[in-house]
Amino acid sequence: MQTFLIAPSGYGVGLTSVSLGLVRALERRGLKVGFFKPVAQPHPGDAGPERSSALIARTHHLTPPEPLPLAQVERRLGDGQLDELQEDILGRLQQLENGHDVLIVEGLVPSPQVGYAVRFNGQLARSLNADVILVSTPAEESLEELRDRLDIQARLFGAGQDSPVAGVILNKVRPGPLAERLCQPEPLGKALRLLGCVPWREALNTPRTSDIADLLGARLVNAGDYRQRRVQHTLLCAAGVPSLLAQFRPGSLLVTPGDRHDVILAAALASRNGMPLAGLLLCSALPADAQVLEQCRPAMADGLPVLAVDRAPEETLRELERLNREIPLDDLERAERISDYVASHLDHAWLTRRCGTPREPHLSPPAFRYRLVKRAQAANRRIVLPEGSEPRTVQAAAICQRRGIARCVLLAKPEEVQAVARAQGLELPAGLEILDPEEIRERYVEPMVELRRHKGLSAPAARAQLEDNVVLGTLMLALDEVDGLVSGAVHTTANTIRPALQLIKTAPGCKLVSSVFFMLLPDQVLVYGDCAVNPDPDAAELADIALQSAVSAQAFGIPPRVAMISYSTGDSGEGADVEKVREATRLARLARPDLAIDGPLQYDAAAIASVGRQKAPDSPVAGRATVFVFPDLNTGNTTYKAVQRSAHCVSVGPMLQGLRKPVNDLSRGALVDDIVFTIALTAIQAGTAAG
C-alpha cells in the first residue's frame, strides 16, 4: 500500500486545499483512499473539529481517525516520549490500512509556535515508510531562489538516495515570469520533481454572503439565498445611483447607509432584472424605510439577501478585511470546487506510476463524474437544447462548450440568450451555436411531412407542430443534424419523450423506452431503473428494462449485478406482484444467461452484504447489487427520491434508454450541474451508438 506524507514548507501554503485535491485525483483513478491528520492544529477562532479531517470527511465521505490534540503531543514530546507518541499514531493509522490502496497523511504545519514541525514530519515519514510530498507557495523570488529554498527543505528530510521526498506541489502560484518558467521541463532540476503547479484563482476564495453575516453579526432583513450567493467584490455605495449602476456586477455586495433608499431600490431593480448580486448590506443605525423595503419584496422573494449592521460603512469595510479566507466546514460547494481544481493541476501520470493499479476499481461519485466528463470530451458530439433561453440551460451550455464536453446548439432568439447571459454576468464562449427557430423552422416542414406521411400529416399541421422547439430539435436529431437532445428544464417528461417516440423510434431489439438514474452515493454509484417513464410494466417489459439498465451500467463503467426488487426475497412471498418480478427475472436470464441477475429480492437483501448472506446465501447478486430494477413507477420514483433526499446524494438523470438516438429528460428542478452532467451522458450515449 502506498503512503504519502504531505509536508508543508511553511505557514499558509494551502495544505488543506492540496490534501483535498490529492484525494480527489487518486479517487478519479478508482483507488480507495484513506486520510489521516495525526495532530490537530486549531486555527485562531476554531472551536469545532480539526479542519482538514472534517473537510475531507464531508467532501470525500472518508472517515479519518481522530487526531491527537496539539497540546497533548507537545506535552509528550517535552517528556521525551517520542517513540510512544509515534506508536500511538501508528496504532490509529492501522484503522485505515485494510481495504485502502493509498494513504494520505497530512503533516504538521510550521509556525512560530511549532518550530519542531519539520523534524517531527521527518520522523513521521520514516516511521510510516512514506513518500514525502512537499507543499510550498512561491514568494516574490526567482526560479533559482525557489529551487535553492526547496532543495534546503528537501534535505532536511534526508540527502541523496535516502531522501523520502518524492516531489513538490506548488500552490497559489501567481501569474508572472516565475509561473511561465515553471512550465518548462524539469523546472526544479533533476533532484526535485514538480508534481503539481496550482495557479492562484480568486474565485475559489470567495466567501458566501452568510459568512459575511456571521463575521459581522449582521441582522437578517431577508436571508434569501445568502447561503448560496458568493461575494466576488464589495462596493461601497457612496456616489449617486447613475454612476453606481455601471459598477453593479454579479457577486457584488453593496454596502450602503440604511437611508440610501435610491441605492436600495436600484439594487432591487437590478436583482429583478436578473443581476445575481451577492446582497445588500445596510449600515449605520438609520433603518431603511419600511415602505421602501416593501417595494423590494419581489427581489427579496427572488433570493436577494439583505443584511443590516449598526456600524458605519467605513468601519464595516475594515471589519470585512478580517475575514478568515479558509474553507468553512459547512461550505461543501467550495470544498468540492477546490478539490476538482487542485486535482486538475496535479501530475496524474506520475500518480498512476507510483500508485499502480487498484486491487478492485472503486467508482466513487467523483471518479464517475470525472470519467463522465472525459468520455464526453472524447466523444465530441453536437447536442441540441430546445429550451435555449432558459437561464440554467444557457449556463450549462456555456460550461459544456468551454470545457469541450459537447458542442451545444441553443434553439432560441440570439438576443434573448444574450440578455440572459448579460443578466448573469456570463460570457458566452466562442463556438456556442444559437439558432433562431423562426429563421430555420420552415425548412423542416417538408422533412416532417415525409417522416409522418404514414400518419397523414399535412404541411400546415407539420408547421404547427414545429412551433414546439422540442419537436424541432427532435427532428434535427432524426435527420442526423445533431447527435443528441436534452430537454425538460421547463417541459414535462411527456413533452420530451412523445416527439422522440414519433420521430426517433425505439432501438432494434427494444420493446419500450425506459430510464435510469445514476445514484451517486457517498462511496459508490448505483443504477436505478425505471423511475421516470413506465407506470406499471408487465413481466416482459420489466425484463426489457432490466436488460437495458444493465447495458447502461456497463457503458458507464459500473459492473452490472442486477437485482429485481420486490417486497419479498426468493420464494418467501406469493401474489401477482411477486410473480411478475419472478417471471421478469426468468425472462431476463433467458435473454442474457451471462448476466448476474437475481430476483425477487428485497432492497436490503440486494444492497447490504450481511442481509444478503442471510436471506439469499446462494445469490450472485444479493448484498452487492449495482443495478436496482423496481417493479413499477410508484416504487421506483418514491425510492429514488427518498434515497436522494435522505442520503443527501446527487442523482444524475433520468437517462432515457431504448431509443435509436439519445434523447434525455431533465427534472424541472434541475441545477446547472445536473444539466451539464445530463449533456455529458447524452454525448457519451451518442458516441457509443456511433461506435
TrEMBL record:
Task: Work out whether the entry's keyword set contains Ribosomal protein.
Answer: no
Q: Which residues form the Phosphate acetyl/butaryl transferase domain?
A: 368-683
Q: Which UniProt keywords apply?
A: Acyltransferase, Cytoplasm, Transferase
Catalytic activity, as annotated: acetyl-CoA + phosphate = acetyl phosphate + CoA
MF terms from GO for this chain are: phosphate acetyltransferase activity
Catalytic EC class: transferase
Assigned EC number: 2.3.1.8
Q: What is its main location?
A: cytoplasm
List, for all copies, the residue spans of the domain called DRTGG: 211-322
UniProt keyword Cytoplasm, yes or no: yes
Instruction: Please give an example of a GO cellular component term from this record.
Output: cytoplasm
Pathway given in the UniProt record: Metabolic intermediate biosynthesis; acetyl-CoA biosynthesis; acetyl-CoA from acetate: step 2/2
Q: Name one GO biological process term.
A: acetyl-CoA biosynthetic process
Where is this gene product found?
A: Cytoplasm
Role summary? Involved in acetate metabolism.
PANTHER family xref list: PHOSPHATE ACETYLTRANSFERASE (PTHR43356)
Q: How does it assemble?
A: Homohexamer.
Which comment does the entry carry about domains?
A: The N-terminal region seems to be important for proper quaternary structure. The C-terminal region contains the substrate-binding site.
Say which family it is in: In the N-terminal section; belongs to the CobB/CobQ family. In the C-terminal section; belongs to the phosphate acetyltransferase and butyryltransferase family.
What is this protein's record name? Phosphate acetyltransferase
